[in-house]
Amino acid sequence: MRSLLLHIYQDDGLEGRLQVALDLARRFDAHLTCLQAVNYEVAMPGDFYGSVVIEMLPHLREQAAKLREKLEQRLSHEDVRWDWIEETGLMDTRLLAHAALNDLVILGADAPGRREGSPSYLVGALSIHGRTPMMVVPDHITNLDCDREAFVCWDGSSEASNTLRAAVPMLKLSRHVCLATVAERKSYDGADLPATQGAEYLSRHGIECEMIELPFESRSIGETLQSAALARKSGYIVLGAYGRPRMLEGVFGGVTRTMLSDPELPLLVAH
């Protein structure tokens, strides 16, 4: 990984994902691009003529400028290569545009307007419409130790396979890799790949892994996987996102929705 894209937005998780981005940039000797997408086209309920928004614009521009000045000053003292891009537009569209020429996108688990108990719409948009893997950083995370165990969630799907391939550069740094499946109470038609094939793929890259099967419990699969990763003191989780349509995930729930709604560990996610 040589090119990293960091989402810049003033929220509770900014400091944490900045530190994670710096950790990754140092480990991979990568270039860090900081993308500050400022959306001035905001709407206020009842503001039919846009007068309130017009009054807000100078304040929004001032806040964006202050944030950039503060972070650029900090970055100038860091031992990484970096640049800053400030653009006007919707966050998801600007992130998608720049993600295309980056190896990894670092963004928070939260997003503007996110409802409590729901996953970030930014992660969903980049998962479905983009091809670049993401590191989703919970607000409480302050660093990323790439040497710690990597907990890989495996269900044999194409999403899990794509994410496993994308994770290889990071998995090579981990002292231990765990490939975890959940013994679901359903039969498979042979379309899904067994965990042994995932392990064989990793072995060709010089990565040994431990395969474990977690029992199916009354709680959700997402909760089962996350609890196991926490119990093992894993450093991060590798997860294939949205193995079924996002609409169904939203209505019926799903592993992706569960783990992105309230993540406890950083998530390396791809679709």
Description:
It comes from Allopontixanthobacter confluentis. This is Universal stress protein. With 271 residues, this protein is of the alpha/beta class. It has helices spanning 14-28, 51-75, 91-99, 121-129, 158-171, 195-204, 221-231, 246-252, 255-261, and strands at residues 3-7, 31-38, 81-88, 104-108, 134-137, 150-153, 177-183, 210-215, 236-240, 267-270. The chain has a ten-stranded mixed β-sheet, sandwiched between helices. The longest helix has 25 residues, at 51-75.
List keywords for this structure.
271 residues; alpha/beta; Rossmann fold; 2 domains; 10-stranded mixed sheet; Universal stress protein
Largest beta-sheet details = 10 strands, mixed
The helix-strand sequence is EHEHEHEHEEHEHEHEHHE
Structure summary, number of beta strands: 10
Q: Tell me which CATH architecture of the largest domain applies here.
A: 3-Layer(aba) Sandwich
Structural class computed from helices and strand pairing? alpha/beta
Detail the topology: elements first, then pairings.
Blueprint: E1 3-7, H1 14-28, E2 31-38, H2 51-75, E3 81-88, H3 91-99, E4 104-108, H4 121-129, E5 134-137, E6 150-153, H5 158-171, E7 177-183, H6 195-204, E8 210-215, H7 221-231, E9 236-240, H8 246-252, H9 255-261, E10 267-270
Parallel strand pairs: 1-2, 1-4, 2-3, 4-5, 6-7, 6-9, 7-8, 9-10
Antiparallel strand pairs: 5-10
Helix pairs in contact: 3-4, 7-9
